[in-house]
Write a structure and sequence with these properties.
This protein has 297 residues and is an alpha/beta fold. Helices cover 37% and strands 15% of the residues. It is built from 10 helices and 8 strands. The chain has a 5-stranded mixed beta sheet, sandwiched between helices. A 3-stranded antiparallel beta sheet has the order 1-2-3, with no helix packed on it. It is globular, with a radius of gyration of 21 Å. The two termini are 42 Å apart. Bound molecules: zinc ion.
């Protein structure tokens, strides 16, 4: 199968003209994974014209979208592909309301689907950052749903970010996560999830990093008003302004998903040509997500 490469919208529209084109693409990618019938566990199937699969033993039918995050997408898989393309290839992505206008779906529908896409963008955790990694914590003032005016800043979210640097000090990869407070207990998660024990970590002099330095190679230096953490602070500035300008409100429950979307584009910026295919591959391997899980309580 020819994977789709590039970020050209016209070429994309030409390749994916119908829902069938999209299903064929999914079926092509699914062939990279071992098949197991969901009902009986048998490993052989026949592919039908609509790219669904029929188990050779129990004749259970699995649609092309089954077991992917495209499962039961009500507005059609072609629109879903376009939304994925926008989210993967545009530098800043779009708000749910704007995406809704562009693809003729309601804002709520667009938001729910975009949350699924962000789920696919979440870090896999099997490639921890090594080399030089700068870590810092920051606060994010975002509007909560249903509040207006001054409450914009009333409840700041706290987050920690880790940026792996290139040899010339630019951001190569990054991860961001929301944390409850700036204690060592909360800060440690980004280390455990995303940073190799071999990495040379640099932080400012905040005492919360001291206990973590028992397990990680951490050097604490003076921040010099951010001058010693230039790439890191540029990224923090970008993620803050992206969230503030693109999303009218962000819930505590979903904030990590927005961070993941931002990092997904940064971390794959060296593979821009294949970023759409990477995302669709993740959409296929991610577990099915139900709307209740996405919305929270
Ligand atoms: Zn079967």
């Amino acid at each position: 199968m020819d994977i789709f490469k590039g970020r050209n919208l016209l070429e994309f529209a030409e390749r994916f003209k119908t829902d069938e084109d999209c299903k064929e693409y999914l079926a092509g990618l699914k062939k990279n994974e071992a098949y197991r019938c969901l009902k009986c566990g048998h490993a052989k199937f026949q592919e039908r014209k609509d790219f669904s699969r029929v188990c050779n033993i129990c004749v259970h039918i699995e649609s092309a979208t089954a077991n992917t995050l495209f499962h039961k997408v009500k507005f059609g898989i072609r629109k879903a592909f376009f939304i994925c393309f926008e989210m993967a290839t545009s530098t800043k992505s779009l708000s749910a309301s704007y995406m809704g206008v562009r693809y003729g779906v309601t804002e709520k529908t667009a938001r729910l689907f975009m949350l699924k896409v962000r789920e696919a963008m979440s870090p896999i955790g099997n490639s921890p950052m090594d080399g030089t990694v700068h870590v810092d914590e920051f606060v994010l003032g975002v509007r909560e749903q249903g509040k207006v005016g001054r409450s914009y800043d009333s409840k700041k979210k706290k987050a920690v970010t880790a940026v792996q640097l290139t040899d010339d000090g630019k951001a190569r990869r990054m991860y961001v996560m929301c944390i409850k407070d700036f204690s060592a207990r909360s800060l440690q998660y980004i280390f455990v999830n995303n940073i190799s024990r071999e990495a040379r970590v640099v932080t400012d002099k905040w005492k919360g990093y001291r206990p973590i330095a028992k397990a990680y190679n951490i050097q604490q230096i003076d921040s010099d008003k951010g001058m010693n953490f230039k790439a890191l602070h540029t990224m923090i500035h970008q993620i803050k302004s992206w969230i503030r300008t693109t999303y009218p409100w962000v819930s505590d429950f979903n904030i990590d998903r927005y961070f993941n979307e931002f990092c997904f584009r940064i971390n794959r910026s060296q593979n821009k040509a294949t970023i759409f295919n990477n995302l669709i591959t993740e959409m296929i391997s991610a577990e099915k997500i139900y709307q209740t899980e996405l919305i929270g309580n």
